Amino acid sequence: MSVRSLAERRYLPVLAIVVLIATAPLFFHSLFYYRIGALVFIFALAVVGLNLLMGFAGQVSLGHAGFLGIGAYAVAIGPTFFGLPPWASLIIGGVLSGVVAFAVGRPILQLRGHYLAVATLGFGVLISIVLTNEAEWTGGPDGMNVPHLVLFGWTVRGADVWYWLTGATFIGGFVLAGNMVDSPTGRALQAIHDSEIAARILGVDVASKKLTIFIISAVYASVAGSYLALFNGLVTPEVAGFLRSIELVAMVVLGGMGSVVGALVGAAVLVVLPQALTVFHEYEQALLGLIIMVFMIFLRRGIVPSLAATLSGWRR
Amino acid sequence: MTAELLQFIFSGLTVGAVYALVGLGFTLIYNASDIINFAQGEFVMLGGMITVFLAAAGVPLPLAALLAIALTTTVGLALHRFAIEPARGASPVALIMITIGASIFLRGIAQIVFDKRFHSLPSLFGNEPVRFGGATILPQSLVVLASAGIIVLLLWLFIERTLLGKAVAATAANRLAARLIGMNTRRIVDFSFAVSALIGAIAGILITPITLTSYDAGTLLALKGFAAAMLGGMGSGPGAVVGGLVLGMLEALSAGYISSNYKDAVAFLVILVVLIFMPHGLFGRAKIERV
To answer: ipTM, 2 decimals?
Structure first.
């Protein structure tokens, strides 16, 4: 690979996204826009992680909202019951998610295709059932309040501040993920995606590579979950629900599996569209279902890869 | 003590029969097309809800039930024709997402067309419980069990004794070979979607007098029916039936003896345990993968 193409592939998207995040507020007419932007970055962060698992390692998870839930409840339970600062709770949530992913991932990741999908689904639903039922810790179906995030004695509040914080975190997660893709682990994962058996024959430790990426994607989701809870100031078991897991997968597939930029696009579409369609509030569910179906049928590769294919077609 | 146990077993068998029917629907579609249809629970919901609303509009109950079954079957066919067929050749994840999208879509439509409340239907033989060995059982439960038995029997006769049934079995065994000898496998997938929807609608109508129904009743039913199919071994008809009954009983027993809060968790624990320790279920066969 030539130096130029590496630079083009690695740094151009990062630069583009930095510019996009920095200039987008020029078009924001109210704090509401900042709020939507922050939500897009939060979900995009979770989607970048899930995309590593789905797009690069070729493993599906229909239960990733479970990790979103662990992160979200960590920043609620930590300060409320143990007097921990929110930022420490966020880190503890991430570590906890990693440990859970390690414990669950070992047996589950041996499964393939449909079976893996269903096992992860079962895991996710179990977490949301626990969060709903352990009411003395989680507040049950009504959820619980989350304190403000305090960083270095400075309280984070206001949608515009959150916009910059989540935007910066997203860029960090994005760059890390990009590095991961180009690392030996990333190449091994792509080999697993293409042919698991061929990869094993070449000496790739398939089980441990899959587990590694599963844990990483769980930590991404957990951090996103913590941010979501801190940003909303409130957390309910819905954050870990089956529908949330589906939304995350839909964001990955809409944006384009295996495309790190796609994560942002997928998250943006599914966060902004329902807001734009609030006039049709009654039809929200039906529309979400319809959008998922239409995209899966007509744009199977996702928005970004389909666009890229069209563009490179023009260039030639 | 035994009376209590018997009581739990009765209620477990009733719910289990519904899981079994949903599981059978899954199995039919999976065998014909390798697709896991997460909209299966929506067929059950539609069967119940359409009957409720037609009956409320003054249509006589039997006619309302028949219309509901016909409409749901049409929805099943439409799902295949307009959502699954156009996506032929897509990855398993994409196909799963399509059926999940369809299920969210149908739920959203049901929410608009019907309402968000719980609804019930009158029982076929009244609500006077039948005493049996110290426990009681609702007449409607007996109706559910008997109907489930009849459906399973009819389905078995159909697969064993009719040409179309044999074509379905052949497609399930080897789709390529079936197509090579001139079968229209597309028609057969059409057919299995229709039959799955039909079975789901019947299950929905039968269970509504006992468990009530609402626009969002489908999701959990789909997941549990799927757990049933998985427990029995994906692709095995008898497996789905046994899996459904076992799952229903496990749920009832754990609700009775452990905690009713965690009743819904049983199905998902079962899924995880089965997948991890015996991935082929109770009746499934190991698939050998060629490289």
So the answer is: 0.84
